[in-house]
Amino acid sequence: MANTSDIKNGLCINFNGKLYTITEFQHVKPGKGPAFVRTKLKNIETGKVIDNTFSAGHSIEIVRIEHRQYQYLYPENNGYHFMNTETFEQVFIDGHMIEQPEYLKEEMVVTIIFHAEEENPLVVEMPHFIEATVTYTEPGVKGDTATNTLKPATIDTGAEIRVPLFINTDDRIKVDTRTGQYAERIKE
Q1: Using CA atoms, how far apart are residues 33 and 156, in angstroms rounded to an integer?
Q2: 3-state SS class at 111
Q3: Confidence (pTM)
Q4: Percent of the chain predicted with pLDDT > 90
Q5: Angle at 157 between CA 154 and CA 163, to 5 degrees
Q6: Rounded distance, CA 95 to CA 93, Å?
Q7: Where are the alpha helices (DSSP H) in the chain?
């Protein structure tokens, strides 16, 4: 069993029955009293970040996780089918395990995090940015370049986002999948 001296960024631990990754840590040795370790823990399934303080020498349970590349194939009922890009093995993932499923495109490569000992998928990480084609938006008028003015647009995945006034139907754009916001227009 490991203890607090083994803590490092990116380490996955079982804490209170849930899986967390350590995003920040700081060993503290005050002048008076025992040493301790301040940490920020990110829940793998929900993404929620919590602060926790471990006393020095406290036992922690390290969990081995693996990041694997999978290609998106197709949706079915409340989930999605993916294929491993190396072994061609297919896996079905429930929709609640994907943070922004409305940005999935056929043949898109995503990272699926697996619990290594149990071989079960924990969460699907989307690429931070995707390229999409605007399938519908109100037409832009020449000279509409006002800053911070947005209009609704539908992209080829079916998701609706807000874009600047100068974007037109059939324009290629880059979308941030973490926030669902327009990032930039792609020059052809």
Answers
A1: 59
A2: strand
A3: 0.78
A4: 51
A5: 35
A6: 6
A7: none
